[in-house]
């Protein structure tokens, strides 16, 4: 599962879009449960992964490639998955946290796809969107975390993931051999069917 790759790309994207450079804030993937927020001292965007589900899109074909040993292999089609994150902002007063959350919403709306910072485990672009309100209720998520309800959004990240089960492709043809049978005086015989009767004919007849 390419979660480290995906989350590294999300962190880079957020820092660039908000912006939130290393020296002024953090991006965290911890569970914001209980008293977690009391330890936050800088502006922080928290992305809590709470669900992984099959996405309602078609699998993506993966072309043949050479593995580390130089053998040509191919993967089964990459499966589309949807990763759902509860995104919240911390580490400041209400005004500062709301400003940071608003910037995150704008970042999602202006970046429907993410291309940079990905490797071979993820096939094609990463699609980013806000969850449909009727599908996820953030109050239920906060209740499950044991924390107080706070402003947040649900970020849905959809991409196709390889299965890491490459199969060896049949080796290419290296040599073609041709053999020619010697001519004989005996003409070639063959049979043909006419209706229900078989008749033998000579070649050239």
Outline the structure in words:
The structure is a single chain. With 205 residues, this protein is of the alpha+beta class. It has one domain: 2-Layer Sandwich (STM4215-like). The protein has helices at 3-17, 94-110, 138-145; strands spanning 26-28, 44-54, 65-66, 72-74, 79-90, 113-114, 122-130, 152-161, 167-168, 189-194, 197-202. The protein has a six-stranded mixed β-sheet. It has a three-stranded antiparallel β-sheet with strand order 3-4-9, with no helix packed on it. Strand 3 (65-66) and strand 4 (72-74) form a beta hairpin. It is elongated and about 100 Å long. It is built from three helices and eleven strands. The termini are far apart.
In brief:
This protein is of the alpha+beta class and 205 residues long.
Structural class: alpha+beta
Give the beta-strand count: 11
The shape is elongated
- What is the name of the CATH topology? STM4215-like
Q: How many structural domains?
A: 1
Distance linking N and C termini:
68 Å
In round numbers, the mean pLDDT is 82
CATH architecture: 2-Layer Sandwich
- Residue runs with pLDDT of under 50 for 5 or more positions: none
CATH C-level name:
Alpha Beta
Beta-strand content: 25-35%
Largest sheet: 6 strands, mixed
Report strand order across the widest sheet.
Answer: 1-2-5-8-7-6
InterPro entries: Pvc16_N (IPR025351)
Protein name: Pvc16 N-terminal domain-containing protein
Domain Pvc16 N-terminal: 8-174
């Amino acid at each position: 599962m390419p979660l480290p790759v995906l989350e590294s790309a999300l962190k880079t994207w957020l820092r660039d879009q908000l912006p939130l450079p290393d020296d002024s804030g953090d991006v965290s993937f911890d569970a914001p449960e209980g008293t977690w927020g009391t330890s936050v001292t800088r502006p922080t965007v928290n992305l809590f992964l709470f669900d992984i589900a099959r996405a309602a899109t078609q699998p993506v074909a993966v072309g043949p490639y050479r593995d580390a040993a130089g053998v040509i292999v191919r993967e089964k089609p990459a499966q589309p998955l949807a990763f759902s994150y509860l995104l919240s902002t911390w580490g400041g007063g209400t005004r500062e946290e709301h400003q940071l959350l608003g910037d995150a919403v704008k970042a999602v709306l202006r970046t429907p796809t993410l291309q940079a910072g990905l490797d071979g485990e993820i096939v094609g672009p990463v699609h980013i969107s806000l969850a449909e309100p009727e599908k996820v209720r953030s109050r239920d998520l906060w209740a499950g975390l044991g924390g107080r309800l706070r402003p947040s959004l649900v970020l849905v990240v959809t991409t196709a993931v390889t299965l890491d089960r490459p199969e060896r492709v049949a080796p290419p043809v290296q040599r073609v051999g041709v053999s020619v049978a010697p001519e004989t005086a005996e003409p070639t015989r063959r049979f043909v069917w006419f209706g229900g009767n078989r008749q033998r004919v000579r070649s050239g007849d």
